[in-house]
Amino acid sequence: MQTTLPPTTLTLENLEGVLFDFNGTLSDDEGILRDLFIELAATHCGVKITALQYQEILAGRSDREIMADILEMVPAGVDAGTVEKYLPLIDREYKARIEQTSTISQATRDLVHELHAAGLKLGVVTGASRLQVIPALDRAGLLDLFGIVVTDEDVAIGKPDPEGFQRAAKELGLENPDLVAAFEDSVPGLGAVAAAGMIAICVAGTHPIEVLRQHASIIVPEISTACLALELN
Length: 233
Hints:
By secondary structure, the chain is α/β, with parallel strands linked by helices. The protein folds into 2 domains: about 10-30 and about 100-230, Rossmann fold (3-Layer(aba) Sandwich), CATH 3.40.50.1000; about 30-100. The protein contains 9 helices and 6 strands. It has helices at about 30-45, 50-60, 65-70, 85-100, 105-115, 130-140, 165-170, 185-195, 210; strands spanning about 15-20, 120-125, 150, 180-185, 200-205, 220.
């Protein structure tokens, strides 16, 4: 099979596909998640986590992995239960905190619509659960624009492992990773993109900019149609 070569100047519109992380990327909700896990850890597990600790060791990982790390911090003698006990609670709390407003900005929606109209294959790759992601995409009017949504339930290993991105690419028929970009906001996510051989576009906000510069050469302040002018090579 003949491999398609990248154009001389690569932009989003002449790629074959674009993938998006959800939390902190498509959805401006990293602060919501941070507060949710900090409060859950304190209330149910007797574990105190600061915002800085969350940012440095937990942000960007799947809900399952974050909860597992919190349970490892539980004081001796405290029976906090298993990860499975908390996943439905996380889903309920997340839904309650975002149901009054969409966390997906109009600027982000505009870019997704532009890419879809240009004929690109689009997907979502996230460590969040299906119960969190699907309603949010549907409420924003974006669900039907994505050919695949890969969530925590669909992979054996979370980011920075590339399994989720590779699965999405396979389902979408994207055979050349050089022609696939992925928007991410976290260090684990950027690691997964790199391991998949795709073009990483980092959305600033979750980590300090000096940390992001160590992991991404393309950093944007937000997802918007301004990203169409990015030169990716």
